[in-house]
């Protein structure tokens, strides 16, 4: 089997592995193997092929991977849907306990339960939305 074909198979295997891991490292190694396959197709001897692969992989991992990792770990800029309700205030419509109750969040009425099961929050109180659990707002009274 020709060397360029082996490098091409290695590049494909690394690309598939990258799809499953999303680490950016395997994709970079796959790109280095792809370039090395091109060098092998041009007739570069095997020791120089390994040198090309090693240099490309090392340089790419050192310079490209940190940039790619920053973009992968970038926090979501905006919160949407029910995630946007967490941290907002709500108005208690009917008494809220650890078992249930009703609150109004931004004009919509939600089922609610107290963050602490021992709390009883009277109607008319202002509460903070701690989390949304399904269709139920978990709330805590404002002090």
Describe what this molecule looks like in 3D.
By secondary structure, this protein is of the alpha+beta class. It has two domains: 3-72, no CATH class; 81-141, Nucleic acid-binding proteins (OB fold (Dihydrolipoamide Acetyltransferase, E2P), Beta Barrel). Helices cover 44% and strands 22% of the residues. Strands 1-2-3-5-4 form a five-stranded mixed barrel. Helix 1 (3-21) packs antiparallel against helix 2 and helix 2 packs antiparallel against helix 3. The radius of gyration is 28 Å and the shape is rod-shaped. The chain starts with a helix and ends with a strand.
The gyration radius over C-alpha positions equals: 28 Å
Order of helices and strands: HHHEEEEE
Q: How would a crystallographer describe the biggest sheet?
A: 5 strands, mixed, barrel
Please report which band the strand proportion falls in: under 5%, 5-15%, 15-25%, 25-35%, 35-45% or over 45%: 15-25%
Quote the average pLDDT: 89
Unreliable segments (pLDDT under 50, ≥5 consecutive)? Answer: none
- Helical content stands at 40-55%
- Annotation, overall tally of beta strands: 5
What structural category characterises the helix and strand content? alpha+beta
Rough outline: rod-shaped
Count of discrete domains: 2
How widely separated are the two ends? 75 Å
Strand order of the largest sheet: 1-2-3-5-4
Instruction: Please work out how many helical segments DSSP would assign.
Output: 3
């Amino acid at each position: 089997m020709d060397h360029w074909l082996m490098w091409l198979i290695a590049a494909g295997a690394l690309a598939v592995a990258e799809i499953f891991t999303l680490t950016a490292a395997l994709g970079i190694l796959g790109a280095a193997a792809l370039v090395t396959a091109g060098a092998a197709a041009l007739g570069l001897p095997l020791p120089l092929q390994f040198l090309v692969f090693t240099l490309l992989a090392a340089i790419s991992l050192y310079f490209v991977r940190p940039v790619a990792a920053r973009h992968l770990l970038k926090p979501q800029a905006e919160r949407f849907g029910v995630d946007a309700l967490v941290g907002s205030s709500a108005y208690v419509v009917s008494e809220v306990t650890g078992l249930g109750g009703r609150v109004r969040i931004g004009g919509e009425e939600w089922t609610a339960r107290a963050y602490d099961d021992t709390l009883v929050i009277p109607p008319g109180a202002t509460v903070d939305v701690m989390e949304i659990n399904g269709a139920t707002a978990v709330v805590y009274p404002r002090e």
